[in-house]
What does this fold into?
Amino acid sequence: MTTARREQLLSYAVLGAFAIVAIYPILSIVLLAFHRRSDLVTGFDIPDRLSFDTFKQAWELGGFGRGLLNSFIVAASVSVATAVLSTLAGYAFGAMRFRGSEPLFYLLLIGLIFPYEATVIPLYYVFKDAGLTDSYWALILPQIGLSIPFGTFWMRAFFRSTPISLVEASRLDGASSLATLLRVLLPQAKPALTTLVVLVFMWTWNEFLLALVMIQSDDLRTAPLGLALFAGANRTQDPTLTAAAAVLVALPVVIVYVFLQRSFIRGMFAGGVKE
Amino acid sequence: MAAPPSTGTGAPSPSARAAGGDAERPVPRVRVRAPGEPRKVAYLYLAPAFLFYLLFAFGPLVYTAWLSLFDWDGLTVGTWTGLDNYRKVLSDPDIRASFVHSFELIFFYAILPVLLGLFLASVIAHGRARGVTFFRAVLFLPQTVATVVVAIAWVWIYAPDGPLNEGLRAIGLGGLTRSWLGDFAWALPALGMVGTWVTFGLCLVLFLAGIQKIPHTLYEAARVDGASHFREFFAVTLPGLRGELAVALTLTVITALRTFDLIYVSTNGGPGTSTTVPSVLVYQNAFSNGRVGLAAAVAVVLTALIFVVAFGITRLVDRDPAR
It folds into this structure.
């Protein structure tokens, strides 16, 4: 029994040590953000007072209210649209038989792997010709396209896991395919859909390159883009302001993560890392 | 977006199967059930998703390949140059160096976290610790934070007066301090360690979940046979984790090859070109230097590389070593 006990303690020690490694960099900028510029912060200082001055200042200087709103508009549109389109496509792949279903599915799977860095060049020039750079469309439309492979893959797995007898019974009752989807299958899809929406929302919220390429106007900057520009302008003068801004940008997703971490992790295993 | 779809947490099948590696291999596919009767209405359900995918993702990819065959500054009319841009990708020392940097990052983003994750997961698996949910959530946190934020946090940690140098001074190693991201030799490994930090938790959590699916009787049998921890790892744990290994490697290698945000925000490829990676070159050439065709060629080569790696890993891990 003592060996088992020792092994258990060792496990906790290992897990604990790496949990600290995982959390320290994040904690360090939170601590830094609570300092004032005049504090001459070094590595491990704990702030001596709890003041939100730096956050207020960063918020006003960097216009993060606008940035967070833009990010929310884009991320919400992309995740809802992706959920709807992927549910329809996943239903077809998961619960119906039709010619060409395998080649079509593989065509879609390519989208899970290829780097979207490789799509940004033509996207920029095509959107520019259409006069659509510097608009929400330039951020929303491409990211729906890029999220659909994961979404469809995910929803297909869900529809494959539901008992076929449900679908058959519904058909025998004379229900159309759409009625079967809406009344029989969707009510059970809530966990799968939550995971999908939460992940796509997070990926879209954190996206940087597309915004960097597409957006010039201050009013349309997403939060990460605003943060990168703000950091470039302020880092050398005042690291505490940059840290406060970084915390503001990361906070919304981290809060959602704290409440829905099971959904996050389940989905990440299934499919993706998007930066 | 990237990734080899695994089968989620439930099904035990080799997770990397669906990544597409089997596209051209006729695998005897066991259909648990036929997914319904043949139905034409399926195309109607697929149409909207495919419209968006083809217009805004797959289409642009093909368009990039087309652009790579031109010499184009983004403004005037381009000139057809055939494969000239690809010749330049292969011969230009800076571009070649950027791919070498990517391979160095693979060590930090993929190899190191996977080895570390495997080792620690096997240590922890013996201990059967409770409260794994909490640790899992914490270890996963780096995955959820925007890379721009990650870059800012680490720029601070690596700063001349930042926590890393302060810590070194505090333990009497002041001689080792340096401006980590401003150092030609250290900047790339320093950024690599950020990658290790981001992907490590994912690997560990993935392997822990995998180990729990290995039948306990296998471990008991190994112990009855008097196998050492070492033998047990190679005979039971490692084979049992092949699926998870494929997922972890594919995810992390792709992340390494695609790295852009971190480098753009922290060093922008510098000092000099010591941390320049292909995606940074794509951005600089396409949007600052007016060499769109060349940028497209770099992007195409990067994409090809990612496909080769993803399919290669799937093949490698799917092969049954027992045969």
